[in-house]
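Hi,

I'm pasting everything inline rather than attaching a file, because the server keeps stripping attachments. The sequence lines come first, and each chain or strand is labelled.
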Amino acid sequence: MDSLISLWEWLGENLIIIQILIKIVLIVAPLMLCVAYFTYAERKIIGYMQVRIGPNRVGPKGWLQPIADAVKLMFKEIVIPSGANKTLFLIAPMLTLGPALAAWAVIPFSDGLVLADINAALLYVIALTSVGVYGVLIAGWASNSKYAFLGAMRSAAQIVSYEIAMGFALVGVLVAAGSLNLGDIVRAQQGQAGFLDWFWLPLMPLFLIYFISGVAETNRAPFDVAEGESEIVAGFHVEYSGMPFAVFFLGEYANMILISALTALFFLGGWLSPFHGFPVIGPALEWVPGMVWFFLKVMFVGFFYLWLRATFPRYRYDQIMRLGWKVFIPITIVWIAVVGLAVVLEMPWWFD
Amino acid sequence: MTFELFVFYLFSFILVAAALMVITRRNPVHSALFLVLAFFTSAGIWLLAEAEFLAIVLVLVYVGAVMVLFLFVVMMLDIDVATLRAGFINYLPVALMVAVVMALEIFVIVGPGNFGLDVYPSPPPLPTDYSNTEALGSVLYTVYMYPFEIAAVILLVAIIAAIGLANRTRSDSKYQDPSLQVKVRKGPDRIQVVKMEAED
Amino acid sequence: MQFDMPSLIPVLPEAFIATMACVVLVVDLFLKQEQRIVTYSIAQFSLLMAVLITMATSTGDSQIVFHGSVIRDTMSDVLKVAICIVTAGAFLYAKDYLRDRDLFKGEFYVLSLFAVLGMMIMVSANSFLTVYLGLELLALSLYALVAFDNNSGLGSEAAMKYFVLGALASGMLLYGISMIYGATGSIEFQPVAEALVSTGMNNTVLVFGLVFLVIGLAFKFGAVPFHMWVPDVYQGAPTAVVLFLGSAPKIAAFALAMRLLVDGLGSLHADWQGMLAILAVLSMAVGNVIAIAQTNIKRMLAYSTISHVGFILVGILAGTSKGYTAAMFYSIVYAVMAVGAFGIVVLLSRKGFEAEQLSDYKGLNDRNPWFAAMMLLIMFSMAGVPPTVGFFAKLFVLEAVVSIDMVWLALVGVAFSIIGAYYYLRIVKLMYFDKPEDQEPLTAGMDTRIALSVNGLAMLVLGMFPGGLLSVCAAAFS
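And the predicted assembly:
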C-alpha cells in the first residue's frame, strides 16, 4: 500500500500526464458502467410504473441485460447510407459523447476530490454542454436523410433556446454562491440546517427551470421531438446502427447523468450531508462519506428523468419554444434580480 | 522547445490550416465546421495566454451559440457554389494584390520589430489563485462602465433592428393564444352537450 | 464605484435620450395604429427636453467623467443641441411621408432616437473605445432604418451595401485604433496625446494606425475615394430616412473627426493634414462633377453631400481654432440645409408617387410659389450664393485655409463650388422657367409648412447675421 502511494507521488512529480490519464480512467470507467446500468434502471423503473416487469431474462433478474445489449451493438454492422458524408457521419456520435465525458473533469465528487479544480468551472461546464448540440446537428445533416435532418433542425433550435434559460439559471447560482468554482458553490451551501441550507430552497424557480431545461437539453421525454418516433421515426439517429448508434445512446445517458450531477452540485448541496446540524440524526450519519451523498443525490435526480418519461406525453414543438422563451427566460431574469437583492441585503439565512 | 511553445505552434498550425479550409472548401457546411475548429484552437491559444475567461466564453458564445445558428441556416440553404465562384478568376488579381499588401503590412507592423519580446517582454505568470473572471469583472463594472453600458444599448438596438426587419405578420398564419385558452369558461366557450329527442 | 452626482450630471442628456428611447419602445407596444401620433409626440418631446437638459447642465468648461470615457465641453454641448434640433426637424418632415406609406411605426422613432444617442456619445467621447461604440450604435440604427421599408427591394439592397461597407470601415477604424493602442499603450485621448508628444512620429506602427484611422473616418464621412455607398444609400432608402441620415450624422461625423484627429492625435497634425487634403480635393472634385450628370434628385443630393464633406475636411485640416470653428459652422449649416432640401423632396412626394426625378420639380413656382421660394433659398445656400448662409460657411472655411498659407486649396475649393453651382441653379431654373408636368396640388400639414418656412428663411437670416452661430462655434474652440 505504501509503495503504491509513493509510486503515485512519484508519478505526480515526474510524469504528471500519466497520473492525469489514470485519474481520467478512474472517472470515465465507472461512469460508463453507470451509463450502462442507467439504461437498465430506466427499463426496470418504467416497467414497474407501467405494471410490467421489464428485462428479466439475461442473468439473475436481468442484471446482465446492459452487457448483452452492448455486446449485441458492438457486433452489428455499421451501415453508412448512400450519399452520406462518411467522415462527419462517424464524427457526430463522438461529438455527442465527448463533451458529456469531458465535463466530468471539473465535477467534485467530494470535498477536494476533483480532477481539475479550476476557477471558471461553471463556465467550462456551460461551454462544454453547449458543444454537445453539434453531434445532433452534424448527424442529421451527414445522414443525407429527410427525417434525420428534420430531427436535427428541431433539436438544434430546442437546445439553443433552452441553453439560454439554463445559463440564466446558473447565473442565479453564481450570484448566490459568489464563485464559478463548483467546489466553492457547494461549500457556499454548507450550514447548520442541513438540506434546508442548500440552494434549492432560495433558488426554487431556478432549480426547477434548470432541471426542466436540462431535460430539454438532453432531448428526453417530454421534450424528445428530435427523436419523435411517431412523426420522424427516430430523428437524427434514424440512419445509425451498430457502434455509432451505441455511442449516441451512451452520449444521451451520459448527458443525463451529467445534468443530474450538476443539479445535485448547484442546488442540492453536492457532497454535503442533508442532515448536517440536525440533532441526533446529524451526528449519527456523520460517518457517511460525501461521495455517497453525492451519488445518492445524482440517482435521486436521475430518477426524475425516468419518472417524467413514464408520465408525460410529448410536448408540441411550438409549445416547447413558448415555454423556453416566454416562460422560463422571463422567470429566470426576475429571479436573478431577486437573488441579487437578497445577496446585497444579506438576507438570512442563506446569504448572511 | 518548451512545452508551451510546442502547444502554441500546434494550435497555431491547426488554426491557420482550419482558417484556410474555411475559405477553400466547396461545401459551406464544411467551411462552417472548420470555422468551429478555428474558434476552438484560438480558444486554446487564449488559454495559453492565461485568458481563461475569454477562451471559455469564446467557446460558449461563438461555438455554442453563434455557429450553431449559423450551421442551422447554412444547412437549410441550398447554396449554389458554382455561381458564387463565377467571378472568382476575375477578382483574383485584385484580391491577391490586396491580400499581399495586407499581409506585408501586418508582417511589418505586428512583426517582431515592433511587438517583439525585446519591446514587450512576456509578463510573469500569474499565481494559480488569480481569477481572470474576477479581474475582468472588476474593471468592466468600474473603469469601463460607460462603454459597457453603451455596448448593452447596442445589443438592444440589434434586437430591435433584427425583429423590425424580419418580423412580417402574415395574415393567413394560424396560431394559438394561450392567454385566451386559459380564460375559457364553462358555458358559451366550451363544448355543450345538448339532449335531443330522437327523430324518426 | 459610487454613482455620485458629479459624474452623472454630465451624461444626463445621453441618459435621458436612452431612457426615452426605451419609453417609446414600450409605449408603442400598447398603441393602436391610429394612435401612433403619441409615439411621434413622445419622440419629439424627448428631443426637445434633451436640448433643454443639455443647455441647463452646460457648465462652459470641460469635465471628464467615467474614468476618462466621457468629456463634456462646449463643443459637445453645441453639437448635441444641433443634432437634436436637426433630428426634430427630420421627424417633423418625415411624419406625413411615413403615414402615407404605412411606415408610420414605432421602430422608426426608437431606432432614430438610438441613433441620436449614438451621435451624442460620439460627440462627447473621450476615448477611442467610447467613440467606436457610439459610432457602432449610430451605424447599426442607420442600417436598420435604411432597410426600414420591408417591401422595397432597393431599400434592402442599399442597406446591404451600407452594412457591408460600414462594417469594413469599422474594421479599418478598429484596426487603426488597435495599432495606436499598441504604440501608445492607452485608449484615452489625453494619455495618447501625451505619449505621442514623447514618442513622436518615427514609429511605423503609429503611421499605419493613423492611415487606417483616416480611411475608416473617410468611409464614415463618405469622402472620395470611399464614397461609393453614399449615392446608393440615399437613393435606395426611404426619403424619410434619408432626411435623417443625410443631416444629423454629418454633425456627428465632424465630431468624430475632431475627437479622433484633434483630441487624440493632435500632435500628428502635420501627418494627417496631407491625407485630409487629398480626401478633400477629391471629394470636392468628384462630388461636384458627378452630381451634374444625375437625374435623380436623391442621387444628386448624395453627390452634393460628398462635395460638402470635402469642405468640412478643408476646415478641419487647417488645424487652427479658426479652421475648426469654420468646419463646425459648416457642418451645422449643412445639416440644416440638407434637412430642408429633403424636406421639399418629401413634401412633393405623395402616396404612390416619389418626387425623385429632377423633372418632377418643373414649374414648382406655378404650383406653389412659397415652397418654390424656400427651395430656391436652400439651393442658393447649398451653392454658396450670397447672402445665404451657405456662402458664409464656405467663406469661413476658405479663409481658414488661406490663413495657413494653403491658398491653392482655397482656389480648388472655389473652382469646384462654381462648377457645383451649376446643378443647384439648374433646379432653380426647372422650378421657375419650366412648365409643370405634374398638376397634383401640394398638400402639407400646418406644422410642415411652418417648419419648412422657418428652415428656408433660416438660410437667409443666418446668412445676414452669421455672427450668432459663428460665435457659438468659436466658443467651443476658445
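The first helix of chain B runs from residue 3 to 24.

If the labels don't parse on your end, tell me and I'll reformat.
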